[in-house]
Design brief:
The protein is mostly helical. Helices cover 78% and strands 0% of the residues. The chain has 2 domains: 2-99, no CATH class; 101-147. It is built from 4 helices and no strands.
């Protein structure tokens, strides 16, 4: 019975302290990721290379089974820049690039779906026309040789 209580206490302690250690590394990774992103952008690098460097660092620091999503990494960078306004005051203008224009993306996806529907419709019409022509010529050929 004592052994069970001891194991229960150990598990309880692990349950309490494990999330705290994981959260600290996540915050540190987000802070340094923001520093990487902002320093590179301020140095004249384009958004893509700055984002790739920061995102790669944040993913690498997270470790574990689950990886950080791009949305989550962008949120970490934004939170750090906003939280530490004095340190990253030059970086606020670059934050909008972390979040793509959602309306534009939806419009492009809708346009792509419409084009795909039109393509399928045209393919179907072409297939039907080919079948009609094939049947017509097959009938003519058979008529020619039927005596």
């Amino acid at each position: 019975m004592k052994r069970f209580k001891k194991n229960k206490l150990i598990l309880l302690a692990l349950g309490i302290f494990t999330p705290l250690t994981l959260t600290t590394s996540k915050v540190n990774a987000g802070a340094f990721g923001a520093e990487i992103f902002c320093t590179m952008r301020d140095g004249g690098n384009d958004h893509e290379s700055s984002w790739d460097a920061a995102y790669t660092y944040i993913k690498k620091q997270k470790g574990g089974v689950f990886k950080v999503s791009p949305k989550n990494a962008a949120a970490q960078i934004t939170e750090t820049v906003i939280r530490e306004k004095e340190k990253f005051s030059y970086c606020v203008e670059y934050l909008d690039n972390l979040y793509p224009n959602r309306k534009l993306i939806r419009d492009l996806e809708k346009e792509a779906k419409d084009k795909e529907k039109k393509r399928k419709k045209l393919e179907k019409e072409l297939e039907e026309a080919n079948e009609e022509i094939s049947e017509k010529y097959t009938d003519e050929i058979l008529d020619r040789y039927s005596y």
